[in-house]
# Entry
Amino acid sequence: MFVIPAIDLKGGQCVRLLQGKEDAVTIYSDDPASTAKRWEESGAKLLHVVDLDGAFTGNQKNLDAIIKIRQSVSIDIEVGGGIRDIKKIDGLVSIGINRIILGTAVIENPSLLKDACAKYPGRILAGIDAKDGRAAVKGWVEITGTNAKDLAQEMEKAGAAGIIYTDISRDGMLAGPNIPAMKEMVETVSIPIIASGGVSSIKDIISLKEIKNLWGVITGKAIYSGAVDLKEAIRIAQSSGF
# Structure
């Protein structure tokens, strides 16, 4: 299982939001590129980068910061937030982004996912953010009537290389991940699932690792606050025992 550090960008700064609320923001760094380098040096093999301004507005606002992050590290980077047309995907690929995450777009414009997966096979991920089993869109502002599991199956059929599944109620709360929901999602589809939201301790990493076939886990607030040591989390996630 991979442990993937998150870098959330707002106004060019590295921040974290509480339950995805735009006004509940904590600034961790005004130099996201150096933060990315720090996580790479801790052993991360993949960075999860989100343009929060893009997620809320539909327009990418942190491209300069993303370019600087790409230039600062050699590991793979996946990017999401405000990517709602093929032109933006082309642009990110052209600057060396390895994987693209489509969130709101997969619900509002299903054909975009199919087109993107056909053009960039193995590089397009679907981001499913859910609360009480229902998908949320537009930076988690709107809860839809779409069942998260049904949506996951549709994304698999469309060609998504994997799914990032976030439990909104747990994100940024350090309350522990929703293990039953994550296990259920892994069992729903055959493509890789990356869990996101709620990691608060090494114990949570161990609990997630016990979910058979869970591909990875994203951690943000826990590594920024010091509640989880990224190097130790990676060691445990990659080990054959505890």
